[in-house]
Design brief:
By secondary structure, the protein is α+β, with helices and mostly antiparallel strands. The protein has helices spanning 16-39, 60-66, 81-84, 87-91, 100-131, 150-161, 167-186, 188-204, 211-228; strands at 2-7, 47-53, 70-78, 208-209.
Amino acid sequence: MKRNDCLPTTESVDSQDLIYRIAYHEAGHAAGIHLHNKQKQLPSVFFQIVLKNAAAGMPSAAKARFGKPIPFIAEIEGGRLTETLPIDVLESSGYFSLSTTDAYRTALEADIVNLLIGAAAEAKHVALRETNRFDRHAVGLASLLRYGGASDLAEAYHYLEHSIASQQRREEKMAELFDRALDFITEPAHWCAIEHLADYLLIHKEQTVGCEKAIAVLEEAVYLKKSLHPPHLCPIRYQSFSHSQPAPDNPSRSTA
């Protein structure tokens, strides 16, 4: 789950728009790995969020010689059920039937949905920022390429190519799984969790956010959404860990 983006060398690598988009993208992946898997009664799996600025520490002369956009890279390390956990552990979750094939297929589909959630969350953030509304029907699979989803889409198709022989059936399955990703980010509690974690990433600017911290932030948002706020409102900006720091300027905020 890697989001690669590039900035022209004439622009600041800390472009606010790009940083916000990256934060929502990675928060979407993390929410999928924790909350989507939990929703499906799938086992927990380790992950961490890593944000890398390829230009950090690079001398100005070296930047000038680079001669092309400088990459800004963000990724989720870990987080894959099919790559991390053996089939017998997947089956022991109680969600699967006795069929090993069913166990693997269910885990694989969850991994693909979690791949797609990142770019879908970024797309929703951009839509809310620009128009204050999100129309899920206006977002197609191909549009995810505009939201840092190229490598995630390629990986998702790679997974399906090894499990479904028919190209038509692969496309149908991909559309089905993308619809599940959109369902996930449309769920108010899930979107609030994504916003909450994105806020945390923007405020703290940590290069690595570990699994326990990310899960704590996500669960805090779900608790606030379900217990402390009217159903139509998302929790307030992330504040628990940053009383002395101002929130980022002009955040997107949804009543979804």
